[in-house]
Amino acid sequence: MSAPSSYTWPYPIRYGQQDTHETDVLILGGGIAGVWAAIAARRTGARVMIMEKADTRRSGAGGTGVDHWNYAADNPCSTITPEEMTQALVDNHYGYRSGISTYIFTSSAYETLLEMEAMGGKVRDTDDEYKGAPFRDERTKLLFAYDYQNRYTLRVWGANYKPLLRRQCKKLGVEILDRTSATALLTENGVHGARIVGVTGVDCHTGAFVVVRAKAVILATNRPQRIFTFSSEQRGSAVHRGGSNVGNGYAMAWRIGAEFTMMEKTMRTVFASPYNFPIYGSGNMHNTWYPATIVDANNKEVPWVDCNGKILTSVEERCRPAEGQKFFLMGGGNAYPPPGLKQYAGPKLIPDLEARMLKGEFTPPFYADLTSMPWYERKVIWGLMVGQEGKTRIPIVQTYEKAGFDPAQDMLQAYDFLRGQGMAETGAPQERTFGEIGVAGGLLVNWDLMSNIPGLFGAGDLLFGSQDHGNAATTGRYAGARAALYARGVRHGELAAVQVEREKKRVYVPLAESPDSMDWKELNFGVARVMQNYCSELKNEELLTLAETWLADIEQNEVRRVSAKNPHQLMRTLDVIDILTCAQMIVQASQARKASSHVLSFNRIDYPAVDPPEWRKYLVIGRDAGGQTRVTDRPLGFWGDLPSNYGPRHAENIAAMQAAQTTAAT
Description:
5-stranded parallel β-sheet
């Protein structure tokens, strides 16, 4: 096969040619979770390979930087234990957050960060830029965000963490297949649900078919995006996370029988809207910008209040728990926590601001006013937080400063109540997200971070009920060690030639043009439109049945019409087919839940009871060998005791790494 003669492609075309590799642990996805998994698996003594469709130097949701390292309850300054932090985070989602991944995260976040520091990452204020600031610990020189009293979230200089992690991978001898998109998981003898024996992929430059034989596979491919909205032309960027994150791991695992949970959770968000502003590029007081002062058009300051409604009179008060409150979660106004969990609610702007604005007490537009804040707050928000966050370092800080913006003398407009604010407004009903933000559905795993498919592990935000850069790093590190230990005890399985050839035939179908062909974007538009129409804010059995019917029709009749003119377009086409599969998973999970849920942003108008006790559980979906969906469930908190499940495994991981490094040294 060859590229169409009308197309000039800068790489040699090798469609149909097969490249074969073998390793012990194969990691799909070279983002934060993937590179940490590779480092840990290699340090445990395994042969390791990463398959990444982009470039591991900067790929993934956190590849371009990180400004804060959340929930590091194991750091020496924290007054909160990992058990307390995990329970608070699980409670904050009414039980619908993974206690497994969250406890791994809170128990080893600082431990993992120390490894990052050893690789050359800057973790401390070594230049004493913030000496004397209330968020600085003078002994350790660590900087903290949000809750200055309990000190569990660290501010870090993370813009170069990803290149440093890749360099460590290369130093340790990890093989990296960049620009290679995984397409299918291979099972022993080709049997549905059997243990993992390898993976297929496509080289995104040459189009060659790639087969990797492996004893264990770690999915670190992040979440699906572009499920409900897609508009590359209208907004330039159609996603909030990395553009290559489309749920490939979900689709591949689903097809071989892996189990998933919380897939019915979707929610409104302006991140899915063509009208939003660049993330953190407008004035706000959320997350990266916390605890910025907000003023109205007349320079009248908008008051902050604590969880008891008390007016806070100083900036420092915005960063301390209220009277009688042990600690609060995150940074104020970005919807944490939900109603009913006052004990975790952080300081925020007055809750009746909109009503008071409509009465004329405050005049829009509003602005984030860093000029009136203490120098250290101004500098840490704009210079460190916005400056090190990957989505803002270049598009916001560099661009705005080049245009003349100076946070010491200029204010930045906020778009609350004017449509387009990326953090405050809810968006239209059909402007929904499955995985762009928040805790989402994902792969169901046990305490080894292994799925129901033997040898198939997960890490990062692909795991059910997981979230955060630090979560990706810690679960990647943990999964890498567990997968390496698993690989020690098994032999390489036999690849089924029929399974490999079937996949090779499937991936090259888009190369055959037809008279009525379309491109991958049109297919993505079609999937999103079906989900907007039939699986949006309001759901019932008839709507969901129509969604199922339309998606099946697209799969059977429209996918074959998509034409790819080069290997890059082939990769994009295969991506959208995986997006289609993920949409089908969401519909299947939505059909299975016969109750509405405030927690899951799930509204079944034919089952209006909200979170009835009998439906307070995880619904688990999987695909059987005949292609039918099986539905089971798990109770909330099914993971059991946290320390007794985590402690022995973590100790085994560390011991195995130390033993392997000692052996290598001798």
